[in-house]
Amino acid sequence: MRGFGRQRIAWHNGFKVLQLRYEQGRPLPAQSQPQPVYSMCVFLPDARDGLCWLANQIACDPDFLRKHLPRSDVEVDDFRLPTFKVSFDMTMNDILCDMGLKEALEPGKADLSDVVEDGTGGRRRLALQEVIHQAVIEVNEEGTEAAAATVMITCSTTSALPPLSRCVAFVADHPFAFFVIEEVSGAIMFAGHVVDPTI
């Protein structure tokens, strides 16, 4: 992803942070809780070998991400973020058992026949055999996508906030960390790092 113009970037002592807001769906009518706001945040150390130092800073302070997010857009004279795709999948059976769902995963104990009809109005005996979680993060020339299970959100690389006068460069040509966060709750949905970016 290359370009110039305005991007949502904050610069700090030893690193910069890029925030790419995901496009939001239409809010549901009469929704009592605030609509979630998702964004991908790229934490880029100034030093080419600074990812380990930056990761330690993030790990030492639970509020580190929130405290260092950009607050406005800036003019960018050189903007480069490599295309990358990270995928992850794992079987969740052991984790779910540790959380107390043992009976649902034990053969012969769980009966989920009330959940699904067989199409003829009858019911078949069903049991939960395996739970698999899969997540994918992709950044390309169009923007970024993040998906987990059946949830898909897409991203725009611009924002409507007014620019600041300072002009900066954001060139991710060395290792960096990235996070997909939900801004209202502060929840981290995905976390990862790229150690060999190719721009």
Automatic annotation (TrEMBL):
<dbReference type="Pfam" id="PF00079">
    <property type="entry name" value="Serpin"/>
</dbReference>
<dbReference type="InterPro" id="IPR042185">
    <property type="entry name" value="Serpin_sf_2"/>
</dbReference>
<protein>
    <recommendedName>
        <fullName>Serpin domain-containing protein</fullName>
    </recommendedName>
</protein>
<dbReference type="InterPro" id="IPR036186">
    <property type="entry name" value="Serpin_sf"/>
</dbReference>
<dbReference type="InterPro" id="IPR000215">
    <property type="entry name" value="Serpin_fam"/>
</dbReference>
<dbReference type="GO" id="GO:0005615">
    <property type="term" value="C:extracellular space"/>
</dbReference>
<dbReference type="InterPro" id="IPR023796">
    <property type="entry name" value="Serpin_dom"/>
</dbReference>
<feature type="domain" description="Serpin">
    <location>
        <begin position="13"/>
        <end position="197"/>
    </location>
</feature>
<dbReference type="GO" id="GO:0004867">
    <property type="term" value="F:serine-type endopeptidase inhibitor activity"/>
</dbReference>
